[in-house]
Structure formats: C-alpha cells, structure tokens
Amino acid sequence: MRCPKCNSENKDSAKFCKKCGSPLKKINPENRVNSGNNKSEKSDSTKFLIIALIIVAIILAGVFVYIYGFNSNQGTDVSQQIQGEDDDDSDSMTILGGSFTTGGELEDKTYASIKVGSEFAGEKVTVQIFYSRDGSTLNNGNMVPVTVDSSGTIEVSSADAYRYFPDYAEINLFDASGDKLLDTKSVSLSPEAGTQTF
Questions:
Q1: What pLDDT, in 10s, does the model give residues 108-167?
Q2: Which residues sit opposite 186 in a β-bridge?
Q3: Which of 51, 81, 165, 195 is deepest in the core (most CB within 10 A)?
C-alpha cells in the first residue's frame, strides 16, 4: 500500500507509513467493487437519459410534422375544394335584376320579371317569392317551376291577388328540382300600382 502523503510503499496490513508516520487508509475491497458499480450505474443512467431524450425529440418532431404538415396539406385541399366550388358557382345562375308589376286594382296579381342572363335560356328552374306589407306576410311562397326564356328572363305571377300592395319581396331562385338554392334577392317596393325595377 502506498502512503498518500509521501508515496512510500508500505505493507497492506500497516496502519501508519513507515517513512513519514501518516495514517494509512485501507480500501475495503467491497467499496472498490461498489465504487465500480456506481460508475457503471451512472454510465447506464446517462445512456438511458440520452436515449429517452432522443425518443422524446423524435416523438415531438413527428407530432410537429403531423400537425403542421397535415393542416397545411388539408388547407390546400380545402382551398382547392372551395376554389372548385367557386369555379362551379361562376357558371351558376344568379339574379341580375328585374321588375315587379302590379295592376291598378288590389284584385290584380303581382308579376315578377327576373333577369338571370341569356346564357341560361331554356334552363328549368324553381322560383319562390314571398311578398309582404308592413312586415306581415301576404302569401305562402309557393315553389313555381319555370323555364328561362330566350332573353334570359324568368316570368312569374303571384298565385293570388292581395288585399294590400306589397312593399317587400324576397326572391329565392332554386335549381329545377327545388333542392339547391342558386341565389336570393330582397327587394323593397313602393306599396302602389305600377312597375318597379330592381
């Protein structure tokens, strides 16, 4: 055993250094083994910690890619889908304008002339018009199947005459089946006889 102070060689059983007299500390062989195990355990726990951190980093990277990558792709699909719908709607029929005509007597029906464009001439549609006066409904808004004439106009008359001239009309334009709403238009009217354009 070497003296920690003067580095002289001593017997393993010696308690003091034969040269300088310093006390010699004996190393317990079990401590030596335990000390080695501690280093091994520390080394293993460090490796485990590094591996765990790498796994967590991979999982977080995967989640990040999934969330942001998936949403960006989905956003593209949705925007393309919306753009596709808009492209379909560019060919869809819309209400461009028109007029309402009511005769001089309250017993006269109200006639609507709705312009949708000559490119839709010959197409079948369904029209629903609600008439009202001072917020009170004048009719039940029948669904009327009609065909667009050659000038691109739809002509629809009210089913009945009203007790009052209407001051408001809401036009709903549907496809031929009446299932898909193509366009809607609200029109304020003067409650009097004659023709009024919108």
A1: 899 999 999 999 999 999 999 999 999 999 999 999 999 999 999 999 999 999 989 999
A2: 170
A3: 165
pTM for the whole structure: 0.54
Report the sign of the C-alpha dihedral through residues 177, 139, 167, 196, in that order: positive
- Could you give the C-alpha distances from 43 to 31, 33, 37, 64, 73, in angstroms and in order? 18, 15, 10, 31, 44
Cβ atoms of 109 and 129 closer than 8 Å: no
| Residue (of 108, 110, 115) closest to 132 by Cα position | 110
Say whether 120 sits in a helix, a strand or coil: helix
- Rounded Cα distance between 174 and 158, Å, is 17
Q: Which residue has the tokens 């925007």?
A: 79
For residue range 68-121, what is the model confidence (pLDDT) as tens digits?
765 555 544 444 444 444 444 447 899 999 999 998 887 889 999 999 999 999
CATH number of 97-197: 3.30.1370.10, 3.40.50.720, 2.60.40.420, 2.60.40.10? 2.60.40.10
Residues linked to residue 169 through DSSP beta bridges, in sequence order = 131, 187
* Distance (Å, whole) CA 170 – CA 187: 6
With H, G, I as helix, E, B as strand and everything else as coil, classify residue 150. coil
Two tokens at 22?
Answer: 């310093």
